[in-house]
Structures are given as structure tokens and as C-alpha cells.
Amino acid sequence: MSELSKIAPKHTIAVLVDNEPGVLARVVGLFSGRGYNIESLTVAEVDAGRDRSRINIVTSGNEMIIDQIRAQLERLIPVCRVVDLTEDGPSVERELALVKVVAQGENRIEALRVADIFRARAVDSTLNSFVFEVTGDSGKINAFIDLMQPLGLAEISRTGVVAIARGADAM
Amino acid sequence: MSGTERNGDTATLSGAEILIRALTDQGVEVIFGYPGGAVLPIYDALFAQNSIRHILVRQEGGAVHAAEGYARATGKPGVVLVTSGPGATNAVTGLTDAMMDSIPIVCLTGQVASHLIGNDAFQEADTIGITRPCTKHNYLVQDTDEMGRIVHEAFYVATNGRPGPVVIDLPKDICVNQGRYEKPDLANLRHKTYRPPTVGKAESVAAAVEMMARAKRPIFYTGGGLINSGPEACARLQELVRLTGFPITNTLMGLGAYPASDERFLGMLGMHGTYEANNAMHDCDVMICLGARFDDRITGRLDAFSPSSKKIHVDVDPSSINKNIRVDLPIIGDVGRVLEQMLACWKDGGYTPDEAALRDWWTTIQKWRSRDCLAFTQGPDIIKPQYAVQRLYELTKDLDTYITTEVGQHQMWAAQFYKFEKPNRWMTSGGLGTMGYGLPAAVGVQIAHPNSLVVDISGEASFMMNVQELSTAMQYKLPLKIFILNNRWMGMVRQWQQLMHGSRFSETYSEALPDFVKLAECFGATGMVIEQPSELDASIRKMLDTDGLVIADVRVAQEENCFPMVPSGAAHNEMILGDDGAAERPKVTGEGMALV
Ligand SMILES: Cc1ncc(C[n+]2csc(CCOP(=O)(O)OP(=O)(O)O)c2C)c(N)n1
Ligand SMILES: [Mg+2]
Predict the structure, then answer these.
(1) Which residues, in sequence order, are bridge partners of residue A41?
(2) Does residue B431 line the site of ligand 1, with CB under 6 A?
(3) Is B539:B528 a contact under the CB 8 Å cutoff?
(4) What does the alpha-carbon distance between residue B317 and residue B341 come to, in Å, rounded to a whole number?
(5) Active-site hit among B26, B124, B172, B565
(6) Measured from the CA of B463, which atom of ligand 1 is nearest?
(7) Rounded to a whole number, what is the distance in angstroms from the first to the last CA of chain A?
(8) pLDDT tens, B160-204?
(9) How far is it, in rounded angstroms, from Cα B434 to Cα B69?
(10) Domain closes at, from A84, A116, A150
(11) Domain boundary among A52, A84, A116
């Protein structure tokens, strides 16, 4: 993470793209080539009929940089639409994490208790480990991970943020 | 692409034949290229037809620059054909150059057969990966049936909106296999999703005109976008300048968009721009930026750039807006269309400029002008490079002349002393600053305009970078005039070393130069040396009167520096002038030292 991102506000940007080969490389290359920050990135096809994928990017920068990111994304030929969800009104953000905790005895019980509070589900279990599935905004996931740390946190896999605007308007 | 016309012509053809058909349907007359294994099927298809002329260059980099020269001199897209691997990688500099200067190029690259891609096959390179950041878009053709559609789409993308280079990577099997092709309805072609802006928002145009009418110290700052938009855009600019009476300055890329001989033209702005243009930019109250992009060569120190002006910015590319400089009124649209809107709005609204304020503004500008910042003294012994360009201009201005340049001091002197009256007459590598551009670009220009005079104003170091293209010029009997301002130095770098690095001239002397006369002769051309100021005119005339290609080795003052100069990290009004003594010891800040 660059110096900049620590002070600059985060933005979640949704990008609707034509699902053609190399489109993700174009988007990622744009960020690395121009020195923009990527904090998280998710991508999946969302409209098989029209062959469209959606990329959600969490980035950071001052207003001028965020405007540039948006304009540069729009300049890519296979990009259909770009929406700055942070800028354009309220949105819902979710992330899913799979968190492996290796623990026995009291720690094992405590891990289950914390999981319960966070509405995390145990999706795998052995006599000395759990894999929890937890969803929520990134803050909640971070808090869950922080609590698991002393209890035997062993491994984390996170999806990165998916986000969508609140209300009836669709992208 | 939609709008396909069913005309029944759907017999199967090889991919290479489809390619040639599609190019023909696009109106392509010339391809600049170089053959190789992966493109043999395409060369075979070229062999079998007569509508497209192939110009064989001597290195693929030359092909792209030639296509750029062709494109800039005609307003049509330039087309390039190179083989896979080294052919494609050699093209990368030219593609980047075209990307930076927004030149429409369609570059066809051969590729190994589809099933070999990714296997490190012979002459395989990841052309799509390598050219992704240096093209507007690129395509890998994966199905012969898709060939026609992709070719037409590539031309659409290269030429619409902000123009740029597009690569089509063509695996050999795709060119050999049979497929179908239908000629689309080209006039109604539209991209699936890409919608380049056209007209500007009416409210914004009205607001701009309002600002212009109230301006007390206005200036037009115009760039290559005008040239790209076309001659009508330039004509509209002239009309608007005439109606308003505002001063105008051009960027390096925009030279020729406005006639240089006109009173209202303040010359080029920027790092080596005129005193009057840069000071007017610094002190103006309304800046109307048309088709230019506030490049760092233009702005100098950002936080000191034109501090008290309201800025209007018209650009077809939204990413150019607020990239370096925050503007007050952005207008996204094709600059030619927006100018049309502005003219209509100005006339219909019965607007008039603030004449009294303008009179004062022009008085101030005349004061700057009288500083005569481009003045130089030509003595009896050694030719000053400025004088050489000035005389070249005087002796060619009434001819049908096109000028290309290489990169360095000679390029800046050409920009300062050669006065362009019309667009599309000036080809120089602006954004990338590519030495070796001028000779191949001149090849492209002369191919487009066989009966015109094409002069490459060159530097002895740059000339050596693509000297092999002399052979191309000879093959096609192109009567190029190569006017080398030979100062025996990589002059521009030497100048920076002198001004900023304590005159430690590290590796910038042009050692072991060839005898340019013999060089010309060994290619079958004519060479001449010009040494005396007194013989300059006669020698230039002789160069012009000589049939065929001529290399003029003009021995110029070796230590001459190019001024005015806004040193890196300095503001517009901190320009150094050639004759004020400060020239030899500029104030370059620590930060400025790190800038290019
Ligand atoms: C391909 C490339 N390499 C290096 C440079 C850096 N560079 C800029 S100007 C210059 C010197 C050019 O010398 P010459 O062609 O003799 O022109 P002069 O400045 O002497 O007129 C160099 C090396 C460049 N612009 N392009
Ligand atoms: Mg030189």
C-alpha cells in the first residue's frame, strides 16, 4: 500500500465490461501502469446473455486521482460503464472470508463463541481446526480476523469487496 | 459491429484474402511493412492484387513512423504490416509514439499459429501483452470468420474519438484457414459499446462563450486535437480568432492549425516557446484550451501555471480533463464540432469582445513581443542553426512543402523558425520525443504526396537512428531533402548538461560521424556540405533543384543553445532568454533536477 492510500479516501468503483479475452489485464494494467492503488478487486460474469462481466475495485486517491481513474477506465474500449459507488450515493458493500483457525481446548470454544457473534458459519471442522465462513463489510471481516488472531488464526482467504448501489436504479 | 449489409458475397476466402478485402473496403491504398514467416500468407494475398501498394521499409520501426507521417500528412489512418516476434517488438516504439501523439494507425502483426501460442515457439512474442499499454486497443483474431469484423472495428477505433494506434495480431493458421466475409455498411458502422463524444454540451458552450465575451486578458491555447479534428476545425478556429480578436498560441503538436504569419499568433508556447506566448499564458484571465492537454512541456511548474485565469478546456478525451491542471469549464467533444457550436453561439448571441480591455492586453503583449526573444546574431563565419532554418523557410515557404523533424535542438529551432500556415504540413514526434522519427516519417509523407517537397530537418545524431530508411527512400525514388543541422553533438542533451550538470559532457559528442556526402552517394543519392553563411542560400537552392534524394550536411555552430527555455521545475514567467546573461546559470531547483 502506498503512502498516499493511507491518507486518501477509499473509493469503490464498479466497472461493467465486455467479457472479452484480456479485459481484466487491461484494467489491472491501467492501474499498475499509472501508479494507482488497488486495495481489492473482484470480477465475475454477471450477464451471460450480453457477455458482460462486472469488476469491483476498491482504490484510493484524492478527488483528482479518482476522477482520472474513472476517466481512464472509461477510455478502455471494452468498458461499458463505470460507477463510483462511493461518490454516487449510498451503496451496500460485502465481502466473504474463509478463515482457518487451528485451536484446541478453551481457544477452540472461544473461537466458536466469537463465530456465533459474527454469524460466521463453520464450513469445515476437524478435531483441532475450523474453517469459518464470514460475510459482511470489510470492517466486520477485519474485526473477526483480529479476534481470531490470538485464538489460533492460521490462514485467510478473502474475496475482496463486491458492492452495489442502494435503491431501484440499476447500473 | 452492427450495420452489416447482406450483399450475398459470402463465398469462403482465406483469412489473408479476407484481410486484404477488408483493407480494400476501408479504402486503404498503402501499407508500410516488412515480411517474415508468420505473415507469408498475407504477403501471398498482397502479391495477388493490385489495389493496395506495399512499401517495403528497412526496419519495422521505420514502417510505423512512415505510417505516422502518412497519417499526419493526409488525415487518413496509416497501415502497417509486420511479422511476429521481432517484427512486432520492433514496432513498439512507433506504436508508443502514435499513442502519445494520437495518430490513427492500424498495425497488423503476424503471430505464430494458434495452437503454438504460449509455447515459446519460434518468433513468438506476447504481442497483445506487450502492446496493450501502447495501443488504444488491440485484437487477437481467433476465428477466420471474425477477421472482417475485427478489421473494420479496428479502423473505427483507430480513427474515431481521440485517434490512436490499434494492433491486430494475426495467428498464421487464421490467415490460412477459410472463412466468410461480408462487406459491412461502413457509413453506419458503430461499435458495440464504444461511443466517442461528438458535440459539446450546449450549456457548457454557452457558458464558455459568456466567459470569452467578458474576458479582459484572454488567450487561445490550441493543440494537436485541432489537426486531428481536420482542416474544417482549423478554419473554424481562424474564424473564431478573427471574430474575437484574441491572441492565440499553439503547442508543438498544433503548429499549422493557425497561420503563423497572422498578427494574432504569438508563436509556440511551452519549454521552448516564445516569451510573449508564455507570458500571455501566465498572465491571462481566461484561457481557452482547444485540443491540447496541459502537458508538462507546456505547463512548467504546475502550482505556478497561469495562476489567475479561468480555464476552459475542450477535449474529445475526458481523461485529459483535470489530469494535470484543474479547469473551470470542461467541454467534452470533438473540437471541430465544439468550435462550430461556439461560433454559432457567439454570432447568434450577438456577443462582442471587451474591446477596451483587449486593447490594453495587446499593448502588454506587444511589449513582450518587442523583447524579440528569438533574436540571434549571424556572424560571417559559422552558420547559426536558427539562420539555417530561417533561410530554409524563406526559400521553401512558397512551395508545396511538408516538414518532418527528428528530436533535439534542431526540432525546436524548426518549430520556432519555420512558420506553418496550414495544418498537416508539420510532422514531429511530440509526446514521446523519438529520435529517428523524421526520416521514416518523411518517407510516409512523400509516398502520400509524391509531387510535393518533403524536408526532414534533422540532427546528425538522430539521423543515424533510422538511417537504414534511406534505402527505402531510394527504392521508391523519393526525392526527400534531408537537412541535417550538424552540430557534432547530441545538442539538446549537451545543452542540459551545460545548464544543469556543470558542463560535464558525458557521452554526448557525436564521435566517428560518417562522411554524409559519401553516405548519400553509397545509397545512390546526392550529398552536399554547407559550411559558409554566405553560401547557405545558394546551397539550399541547389538542394531544392537537385533531382532525387539529397542529404545536406549543414555544419552549424556547435555550442549554440536553444532559447527561450523554461527550465524543468520553473514557471512560465521564469523563462531564460538567450541573450540576458542568465542563460548560462539558470536557477534549477532540487526538484527540477529530477524532472526530464
Ligand atoms: C530514441 C531516443 N533516444 C534518446 C533520446 C534523448 N535525446 C533527446 S535529444 C537527443 C540528442 C539529439 O541529437 P541530434 O539529433 O544531433 O540533435 P540536436 O539536439 O543536436 O539538434 C537525445 C539523445 C531521444 N529523444 N530519443
Ligand atoms: Mg546534433
Answers:
(1) A57
(2) no
(3) yes
(4) 18
(5) B172
(6) 15
(7) 29
(8) 999 999 999 999 999 999 999 999 999 898 888 898 999 999 999
(9) 13
(10) A84
(11) A84
CA distances to A17, A22, A85, A92, B160 from A165, in Å: 17, 27, 6, 6, 32
Angle value at C-alpha B228, between B225 and B229, nearest 5 degrees:
85
A2 Cα to the center of ligand 1, angstroms: 35
Where do the H-state alpha helices sit in B397-509?
409-417, 438-448, 460-463, 469-475, 491-500
Q: Are residues A23 and A64 both part of a single domain?
A: yes
Q: What is the maximal distance between C-alpha atoms in chain B? A: 75
**B410 alpha carbon to ligand 1 midpoint, in Å?**
10
Secondary structure class of B102 (helix, strand, coil): coil
In this prediction, residue B578 has a pLDDT band, given cuts at 50, 70 and 90, of confident
Phi, psi of B576, deg, nearest 5: -100, 140
Q: Domain of A139: which CATH number?
A: 3.30.70.1150
Residue B589 has pLDDT above 70, yes or no: no
> What are the φ/ψ torsions at residue B393 (nearest 5 degrees)?
-60, -50
Shortest distance between the Cα of B535 and any Cα of chain A, in A, equals 51
Burial string for B367-397 (b: 16+ CB within 10 Å, else e) reads ebbebebbebebeeebbbbbbbbbbbbebbe
Distance CA A64, CA A67 (A): 5
Backbone φ, ψ for residue A2 (5° rounding): -80, 165
- Count Cα neighbours of B73 within 13 Å in the Cβ-side half-sphere: 29
Collapsing DSSP to helix, strand or coil, B581 comes out as coil
Is A169 inside any structural domain? no
A5 pLDDT band, cuts 50/70/90, is very low
Using alpha carbons only, what angle is made at residue A49 by residues B153 and A55, rounded to the nearest 5 degrees? 75
CATH number of the domain that A41 lies in?
3.30.70.260
Going by C-beta distance under 8 Å and a sequence separation of 6 or more, which residues neighbour residue B215?
Answer: B246, B285, B286, B353, B354, B357
Residue B505 is placed in which grid cell?
559532457
In a domain, A144, yes or no: yes
The ipTM (two decimal places) reads 0.90
Let me know if residue A171 belongs to a domain.
no
Question: Closest-lying ligand to the alpha carbon of B561?
Answer: 1
**Tens-place pLDDT, residues B97-139:** 999 999 999 999 999 999 999 999 999 999 999 999 999 999 9
Ligand 1 centroid distance, CA of B298 (Å)? 19
Torsion B295-B281-B196-B64 (CA) sign? negative
Based on the domain organization, do A44 and A98 belong to the same domain? Answer: no
Name the grid cell of B238. Answer: 481562424
Claim to verify: residue A11 and residue A70 sit in the same structural domain: yes
State which amino acid sits at residue B63.
Answer: A
When divided into structural domains, chain A yields a total of 2
Place of cell 486495495: A39
Q: How far, in Å, CA of B151 to CA of B510, rounded?
A: 44
What is the number of alpha carbons within 13 Å of residue A35 lying toward its C-beta?
Answer: 4
Residue A109: which domain range?
92-163
With beta carbons under 8 A apart, name residues in chain B contacting A16: none
Give B513-571 as a DSSP string: ---HHHHHHHTT-EEEEE--GGGHHHHHHHHHHSSS-EEEEEEB-TT----SB--TT--
B588 contacts: CB under 8 Å, gap ≥ 6: B499, B500, B567, B568, B569, B570
pTM: 0.95
Residues A78, A7 share a domain: yes
Are residue A70 and residue A118 in the same domain, yes or no?
no
Residues A22, A43: one domain? Answer: yes
- For residues A138 and A105, membership in a common domain is answered with yes
Give B432 to chain A, closest Cα distance, Å. 16
Q: Is B172 a catalytic residue?
A: yes
**Residues A105 and A152 reside in one and the same domain:** yes
Q: Is residue A61 part of a domain?
A: yes
pLDDT digits (tens, 9 = 90+) for B78-100: 999 999 999 999 999 999 999 99
